[in-house]
Amino acid sequence: MIDLLLRDLKLSVRAGGGALIGVLFFMTVVAVIPFGVGPDLNLLSRIGPAIIWIGALLAALLGLDRLFQTDRDDGSLDLMLMQEQPLVLTVLIKCLSHWLANILPLVIASPLLGLFMNMNEVAIGAVMITLLVGSPALAFIGAVGAAVAVTLPRGGLLVSILVLPLTIPVLIFGVSASYAAVEDPAPFLPPFLILVAITMFFSVIGPLGAALALRNAGD
Amino acid sequence: MTESLAITKFSDLANPTRFLALAARLLPWMAGLCCLLFAIGLYLAFTTEGDYQQGDTVRIMYIHVPAAWLSMMCYSVMALSAIGTLVWRHPLADVSHKAAAPLGAAFTLIALITGSLWGKPMWGTWWVWDARLTSVFILFLMYLGIIALNRAMDDPSKAARVSAVLILIGFVNIPIIKFSVDWWNTLHQPASVIRMDGPTIDGEFLRPLLIMAIAYTLLFFTLHMMAMRNEIWRRRIATQRRMAARTASREV
Amino acid sequence: MSHAFYIYTSYGVTALITFSLIAWTVLDGRARRREMAELEAAGIRRRSSVSAHEGKQA
Q: What distance in Å separates the CA atoms of residue A163 and residue A148, rounded to the nearest whole number?
């Protein structure tokens, strides 16, 4: 299992670009927003957490279609299907390595973008923590979409369409937790804990669904 | 009620041919009853008194609420069929959830449009980000996603199995989405918006509403059966064409 | 009737969507039936083994 994790990490690092392009996309999306809404710093700091969350959500979807596709192309997916280890576990590991390689860089890049959006330190910290906790859920849900569309030659766009409605809860609780940290009356913990619960729930459901889909999508 | 009946039928009818025979016998009755109920329901909907608060716009309720209800019931039918596909590998279940997806999308669209048309005179705006409207809208997106996935795949049986997985994942997600949208809505809800569930429903309105709901449900099952029949035929034609092509190539 | 516009529009839209749904289903069925008749005319018939085979696959 550790081997698989290391292999996937190595592959995504060696293939290069994947994580970097994700981060670049994230930065570009966030950087485009002020041109749309105007350079009003107060407004930007108010909508900042939401913008960063949406940017991260979109960027996280970017590399998803490749999650299983490359493995399918070189045949290692068939090996994973045949091996004795439960497929669910394999999928879980693949999700984790995808998260480490592609989504964690987004989390790390988010404080910088928070500065662009004129957010204060508390808000930046809150966004980073909620992203850290919530983004694995994106990887897990995304795995289902990626597995469902694995046989499609151009599944990338379809994956996003299928996955986005399912990620709405993550977005809602992530953003409301980060706002709760800044605005006084709202408590921070309830949405944050619900976000944690959602991530844990999807860490079970996501790999299960993805494994089921992979078994059924096999020829 | 009708749903559970249909399910026992599904498990009995392993054979599509027997399903086709049953459909041929049942369909005229269902269609006739459906038309009758719609006639009664529409008559009642336009002859009953208007609500003193909402005026005549309450008549929109008679088509809006059943459509919204059906949009959820249709997804439940699809989820049951998806279980049938994945667990029992039931050939009719494949056909069933594929045929139900466009119907569900259509009913959800009706619910959205009529809700918006109801909202304009009641709330003064076409669309509010009300918890219910928002979750129905997300449901609509999910329907469209499933249809798109079904369309994108060539092999019907593989498409059925893969979209069954997606349907089930969506089904598990619906309560979470509903809950999160409710939460989000209580954070952002402006106090001035009148909630839809303000006054409790009077018996006067309940009668046409109930009849319309039954009529809609019957309409769904009639159309569902017809669409399933079409789908079975389509697959048979495809198989026969393939066979014919194979024999032809062998002869050459 | 107050707000007649909204009421009639919503009923109209519902009728439109419902009827197009019904029409689509019926027309689709007709087209399939015609295709089957064409195949029949071309001398391609279902064999019962085909249906069993198909039943497993579909």
A: 10
